[in-house]
């Protein structure tokens, strides 16, 4: 186990791999440092439409009280170029296009072989489903979640209802549509308040942890007003912050080393929660433990839960599942990100780098998963 900043390459421990180089569900205790994928140039290359949502192209925000992290999920030109370069290194022709209302006629004109979708969407409670829905409508091949999976996983309460149906561990929760909704008897302080359908730690700060009724009502009111959506309130798990990522489909998936956030590098006034301040404003202070010091049994269980969450929510090609461990090291699923960030400094990239992959290897592996799924 190594504690490292984002820019430092982490190491990993040996694991049992299947004969095809991927890890069978429940078999891997750690992650082996194995040869990075795509060492040999493919015999066939494709015209790949790289679909993006750039922060500079976001519609203007006409609200004085808009939170500062409202656009943090959207991409930068530098990130987009890193995706494009990774795909070009495999010999693909890359065509970059904004995923907006003008995408359909562009696709009809360009006719790409497959679309590499990174679009988070600019607005709406199912905004990650908008581009996949358009691609489905025009019959285009694409990577990442379907409209249904994107909508389900972007709405955290819906994901938790599915997990509860399958008997999977997730903190008790309640959706607040107004600050005055009565608190369920199953919920006990301290509680955690966050927007019902946001990512990248949006709306998560010190004040998200509430210890009494007044704090709860104030934070719920702020969340609803700031993000123009319901607030999700759940039991606060005061424990270790764990993330598990994978690439592939069905039972042919590759798990990356599990990572644990090391909060020791942040200012002491910040609570050990992985919010937008830590993820974006203080990204340079990020440190992780990868692979996380979990032991073989717990590692297997987290991977099993990750894969089951991936399957029951209908995800495709890649995903990342976030957990909290309680004081007894029992894992609780917080959410799944069906369209996880794959920037050069994203959590999934760091996990891939911990076993010897490059950022380019990760991007190409996601595309390869989609190509394989389409029989290409």
Question: Could you describe the 3D structure shown?
Answer:
- This protein is of the alpha+beta class and 376 residues long.
- The chain folds into 2 domains: 3-168 and 237-373, D-amino Acid Aminotransferase, Chain A, domain 1; 173-235, Dna Ligase, domain 1, CATH 3.30.1490.
- Helices cover 28% and strands 19% of the residues.
- The protein contains 10 helices and 14 strands.
- It has helices at residues 77-88, 103-110, 130-138, 147-154, 156-165, 213-227, 276-281, 296-312, 347-353, 359-373, and strands at 3-5, 47-52, 93-98, 114-117, 173-176, 191-195, 209-210, 231-235, 240-249, 252-255, 259-262, 287-289, 317-325, 331-337.
- The strands form 3 sheets. Strands 1, 9, 10, 11, 12, 13 and 14 form a 7-stranded antiparallel β-sheet that branches. The chain has a 4-stranded antiparallel β-sheet with strand order 5-8-6-7, with helices on both faces. It has a 3-stranded parallel β-sheet with strand order 3-2-4, with helices on both faces.
- Helix 1 crosses helix 10.
- The protein is globular.
């Amino acid at each position: 186990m190594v504690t490292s900043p984002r820019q430092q390459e982490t190491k990993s421990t040996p694991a049992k791999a299947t004969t095809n180089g991927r890890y069978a569900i429940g078999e891997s205790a750690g992650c082996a440092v194995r040869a990075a994928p795509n060492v040999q140039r493919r015999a066939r290359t494709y015209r790949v439409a790289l679909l993006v949502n750039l922060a500079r192209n976001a519609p203007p925000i006409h609200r004085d009280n808009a939170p500062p992290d409202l656009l943090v999920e959207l991409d930068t030109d530098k990130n987009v170029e890193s995706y494009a370069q990774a795909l070009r290194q495999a010999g693909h022709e890359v065509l970059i296009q904004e995923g907006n209302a003008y995408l359909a006629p562009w696709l009809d004109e360009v006719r790409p072989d497959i679309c590499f979708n990174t679009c988070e969407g600019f607005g709406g409670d199912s905004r990650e489903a908008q581009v996949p829905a358009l691609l489905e409508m025009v019959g285009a091949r694409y990577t990442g979640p379907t409209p249904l999976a994107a909508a389900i996983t972007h709405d955290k309460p819906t994901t938790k209802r599915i997990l509860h149906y399958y008997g999977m561990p997730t903190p008790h929760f309640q959706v607040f549509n107004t600050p005055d909704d009565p608190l369920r008897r199953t919920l006990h302080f301290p509680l955690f308040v966050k927007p019902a359908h946001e990512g990248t730690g949006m709306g998560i700060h010190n004040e998200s942890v509430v210890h009494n009724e007044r704090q709860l009502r104030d934070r719920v009111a702020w969340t609803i007003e700031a993000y123009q959506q319901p607030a999700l309130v759940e039991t606060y798990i005061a424990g270790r912050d764990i993330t598990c990522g994978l690439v592939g489909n069905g039972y042919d998936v590759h798990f990356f080393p599990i990572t644990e956030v090391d909060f020791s590098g942040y200012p002491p006034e910040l609570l050990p929660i992985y919010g937008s301040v830590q993820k974006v404003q203080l990204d340079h202070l990020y440190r992780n433990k990868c692979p996380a010091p979990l032991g073989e049994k717990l590692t297997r269980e987290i991977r099993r839960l990750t894969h089951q969450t991936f399957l029951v929510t209908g995800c495709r090609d890649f995903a990342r599942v976030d957990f909290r461990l309680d004081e007894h090291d029992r894992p609780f699923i917080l959410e799944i990100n069906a369209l996880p960030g794959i920037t050069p400094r994203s959590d999934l990239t760091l996990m891939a780098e911990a076993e010897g992959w490059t950022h380019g290897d990760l991007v190409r592996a996601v595309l390869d998963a989609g190509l394989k799924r389409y029989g290409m």
